[in-house]
């Protein structure tokens, strides 16, 4: 069936199983919007070796009929977005539309975006097995990025109907000297899926590879410092993209503080002059070459609400003994950023 046939089709006349009117609308929206397609590169096994520590992929992910499965489109809409973390994700993300089935589990990557620091990938899962209310991907399960020494982030899988799940992963790859490339090449080879409510584990062979171009953003230099007796924090810049806001910072802590608390990590409270909350204790990723004395990092949150003229960023240092042995908080003064109109 051609694209013209799809566009001319009366989607309300389609016969769909277990599909709501909302899901029909999502299919129609997905067909009509003009997203760019991600380049799909085939040498997955080589990429896995370059990353290091990743298992060698033995299969390939090819475009499939995944775009015709209603619940597997616009996955981002299933996730709560009161903090505008995913605003414009659908408009500016890249359509991946890759699907693989193994041992009764179909995994489909829906969309992905690279804001120059972080990568967000939405995906969906349909299974013949009963995983119950919660599912997780067995380790090692993380996305790999060619040329990166590793990555950190978060992943969430939510059940939306009987044996159907949607997932969202946001991660920050670590590159040498924080030199982020214009294009990233991504691999993903989940090895098994586990139920969180029973002993079920299903292993299989799923392997994906695709690349993403960096979104262009506007960088506003800040270079403002706040400090306490033992911590000096400098907000270097704020970058505004169509899908996110990224702050870059540096901090220096004293040897005396590190002797008492071996881990000093900032989290953030971010609001604007209209009262919107963008972060309330969230953190980010970073790197230190001297056991935490000097630390460079970035933190990402959602796009700024229209009409806001000031952004308030308050660092809160979490000084920890690690391994759940105790911690304390060091609250620094907020930094006020005048937003450019």
Automatic annotation (TrEMBL):
The species this protein was found in: Sporosarcina highlanderae
Domain DUF5643: 220-339
Alphabetized Pfam families for the sequence: DUF4179, DUF5643
Domain of life: Bacteria
Keyword Transmembrane found: yes
Keyword terms of this UniProt record: Membrane, Transmembrane, Transmembrane helix
Transmembrane segments: 44-66
Entries under InterPro entries matching the protein: DUF4179, DUF5643
Name of this protein: DUF4179 domain-containing protein
Phylogenetic lineage: Bacteria, Bacillati, Bacillota, Bacilli, Bacillales
Residue span(s) of domain DUF4179: 39-126
């Amino acid at each position: 069936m051609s694209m013209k046939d799809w566009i001319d089709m009366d989607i309300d006349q389609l016969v769909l199983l277990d599909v709501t009117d909302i899901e029909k609308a999502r299919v129609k929206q997905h067909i009509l919007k003009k997203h760019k397609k991600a380049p799909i590169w085939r040498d997955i096994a080589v990429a896995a070796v370059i990353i290091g520590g990743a298992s060698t992929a033995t299969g390939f992910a090819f475009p499939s009929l995944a775009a015709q499965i209603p619940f597997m489109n616009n996955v981002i809409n299933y996730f709560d977005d009161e903090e505008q973390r995913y605003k414009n994700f659908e408009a500016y993300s890249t359509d991946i539309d890759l699907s693989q089935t193994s041992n009764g589990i179909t995994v489909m990557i829906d969309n992905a975006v690279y804001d120059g620091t972080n990568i967000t990938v939405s995906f969906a899962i349909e299974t013949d097995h009963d995983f119950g209310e919660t599912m997780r991907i067995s380790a090692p399960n993380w996305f790999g990025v060619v040329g990166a020494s590793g990555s950190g982030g978060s992943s969430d899988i939510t059940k939306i109907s009987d044996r159907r799940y949607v997932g969202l992963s946001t991660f920050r790859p670590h590159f040498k000297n924080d030199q982020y490339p214009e294009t990233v090449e991504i691999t993903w080879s989940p090895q098994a899926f586990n139920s969180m409510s029973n002993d079920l584990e299903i292993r299989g062979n799923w392997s994906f590879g695709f690349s993403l171009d960096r979104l262009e953003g506007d960088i506003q230099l800040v270079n403002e410092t706040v400090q306490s007796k033992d911590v000096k924090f400098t907000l270097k810049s704020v970058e505004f993209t169509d899908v996110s806001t990224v702050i870059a910072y540096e901090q220096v802590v004293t040897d005396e503080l590190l002797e008492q608390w071996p881990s000093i990590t900032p989290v953030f409270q971010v609001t604007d002059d209209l009262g919107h909350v963008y972060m309330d204790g969230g953190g980010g990723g970073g790197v230190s070459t001297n056991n935490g004395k000097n630390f460079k990092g970035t933190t990402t949150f959602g796009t700024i609400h229209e009409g806001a003229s000031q952004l308030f960023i308050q660092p809160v240092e979490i000084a920890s003994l690690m391994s759940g042995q105790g911690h304390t908080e060091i609250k620094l003064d907020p930094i006020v950023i005048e937003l450019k109109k």
